[in-house]
Amino acid sequence: MEPNDDTRSRLIQAAGEVFADVGYREAKIRDICARADANVAAVNYHFGDKLKLYTEVLRHAIYIESAVSESNAPAKGRLAFFVERLLRGMNDPARPAWATRLMLHEMAQPTPSLGDVVEEMIRPKYDLLRQLVANILGVPANHRSAHLCAHSIIGQVRHYAIGRCVITRLWPELEFTTDSLDQIARHITTFSLAGLNAIKKEQEK
Amino acid sequence: MEPNDDTRSRLIQAAGEVFADVGYREAKIRDICARADANVAAVNYHFGDKLKLYTEVLRHAIYIESAVSESNAPAKGRLAFFVERLLRGMNDPARPAWATRLMLHEMAQPTPSLGDVVEEMIRPKYDLLRQLVANILGVPANHRSAHLCAHSIIGQVRHYAIGRCVITRLWPELEFTTDSLDQIARHITTFSLAGLNAIKKEQEK
DNA sequence: CAGTATTTCAAACGTCTGTTTAAATCTGGA
DNA sequence: TCCAGATTTAAACAGACGTTTGAAATACTG
User: Fold this and answer.
1) What is the DSSP track for A12-24?
2) How confident is the model at residue A13 (pLDDT cuts 50, 70, 90)?
3) Does A33 lie at the interface with B, CB-CB under 8 angstroms?
């Protein structure tokens, strides 16, 4: 088990927060070190340089985020569960909420690590969802409709994580409490299940 | 009519490209001036400072982007039209494709201008879509379901603009040609119309 | 304890970048 | 042509930032 109170661990922790807040390029080493209660030179001593620290932070974010749950209930129920979990995970106010914000920054301003992030953080969930969707549609998992429907669902969920600052301006009454998120998840689920059925019917013609 | 070959106009043009590429904070004045074939001091002479230039660029982006079309066809047809236009507009390879990328950067790392951007670039489209959706649902435009469904649709469309670099990694076969975009638009439309119907039925109980 | 390796620290270095300055150049009117 | 204002230019400034350095402090080992 890794210790998490030595300088190296504190740096990763602090760097995760800062990188998630302001992105790689805008993150200041002096800021990170101050939060980690470490000297400015600590980053270079423990990691070599800023980019290597970032890579290390990503590895931790990926590790934390990869606890994807599965089950073998009927597909429709699993979809509801999947949506709820994904939505909660993306909007969880608890630490570390790194992952979502890191991804946002990676999309706005990709670093060389984007490939790894996608493959390790996103691909597993995407493939799982696509399997689920293909199951409901009754098509193979690599069918075009499976991709399209999977993205329709991901798009809706991700919207509430990534577009949050915009959503709250457009619709100030919306809250992001656990209850409200569950309501949103149910909305997305029924909306999407109906959409899936429509696509399925279209497919069968 | 504004001239568009003097230094001031060239600066706005160049700055739009650079800001959209790398975001406000990462954009270098020297880079902008080089593209505009102007001296480093030109920005400060013509606009005062970097932030005022950015504000000016946003005003132009907003102006360009605000050509939202309306019609009085039946609601379902208008939705299809709306989705297609929105999706095309966000993925249009033609210049200026500033707006979408600017928004992405604003979300990742908001500047004080975010409020203006939302109100002038997004709000009109959002209200239009919400009206449309409320019409189909048979509820008032400020009904919770209208908001939720509008965001379900926006989320799907925006996904293909903002998540593009991720999508192409998850699903390399997908193209972003006009044809393909129209296909996607049709998918989102049928998917969403079915979703809307489901929500409507749920509402009527 | 002595001696070696590891870790921390304050200070400084070199570069990048937004901004300023003051001279040079251009423009349009008298 | 001459002048006044507007515009452009090269150079420099000042602060921020990633990185390096060499010494001091700490931990480990025989």
Assistant:
1) HHHHHHHHHHH-T
2) very high
3) no
